Amino acid sequence: MAEKQTAGRQNLGDFAPKFAELNDDVLFGEVWAREDKLSARDRSMITVASLFTQGVPQLEAHMKIAKKNGVTKDEMVELITHLAFYAGWPKAWSAFALAKEVYTD
Question: Which residues form a coiled coil (predicted)?
Fold first, then answer.
């Protein structure tokens, strides 16, 4: 990821400063930055898949990040279709609603 992540500090910096630091500096600053191990694109696909299976609201933000990291609409559709059989049909419907919003262009 090229941009420095600040969402942790922006959203939780005053309330949970250590969690915010770990989010911004460790998760995004160190782990996501290890592009010699996995590309940001691949990390995005993995993260979207994981969040999809959990059915959590962070899926939308990471789907947008995935698009910025080069995951195409066709790849996202395939990812959701594939996971529907493993994680659940209703989750796929919800994920497709998000994907349609994210990949509107």
Answer: none
